[in-house]
Amino acid sequence: MSEIEPIIIDESSFLYHHCALPPLPAVVNRLKDIMCSKEINVSEVSNLVKTDPALVAQILKIVNSAYYSFPREIVEISFAIAYLGINEVYRTVLSLSVINTLDLNDSANFNKFWFHSNYTALLTKFITEKYAPFLPLEKLWSAAMLHDIGKLIYLKFFPKHFNILIKYCETQGELFSHAEKHFSLPSSAFFGKLLCERWRLPGRIKDACKAHSLDDLKKIKGESATDDFIRMISIGNLTAVLAENNLKEELKELVSSQIRTSLNLSSEEFLVLMEDVNAFKQKVYQLMP
Hints:
By secondary structure, this protein is mostly helical. The protein has 2 domains: 11-103, no CATH class; 106-289, Hypothetical protein af1432, CATH 1.10.3210.10. The protein contains 17 helices and no strands. The mean pLDDT is 92.
């Protein structure tokens, strides 16, 4: 299994000419401009979102999900936007636009990706509120939701490589980042960085795409706001992985130990945290389409 066709990337042309991707929909940049204006008008945001029927459907699906448990069905997009809030709508539009523009056909693997993304975002928010409440949750949420988009480049352009990596993780009880190194393939973090640059995504999303693995968490010294930001994203990702995957025992202990060290938790406190982590799974199912 160790023999696999190498992937050679020219950063100057990848995603532009080779494996080209279209730009993000204009609605994303227009909504970003509205967010930066002094006066934000809900009706203006509503009219903008209405230009994309797919986004309207997705936002209504989210606001009517069991996660929000609204007492009656919401059918008006303007009411949905007012209820969710402009920041939440922007994060939703950004995330959905990134996913939809990639136009993936592998529904099984995509659904697993989407579950992990939602799970990581919820856990990052929960853990940050508990252990680093000074960090901006609105930026953390979208960054956590999109931290793994580099894997979608594998799914879209290198599906055979992706399936080999997934099979290796499942049979060996390994992390995806370790599988990439085992086969000497470009990291999905590297692909995520290139995708952020191609679409000019916010810097914090690029930070999360570049660094969210066990090795990244080990390197963090906690000396800057960026370190704290990456630490929370990495812990959100790794706690989700612990709850989702069947990692081999020695790796499970290594990941658990690093999380305990990073959050300065005792063994008992870590067990309580993981109980909360597992409880969040049901909330993720409520957010899924």
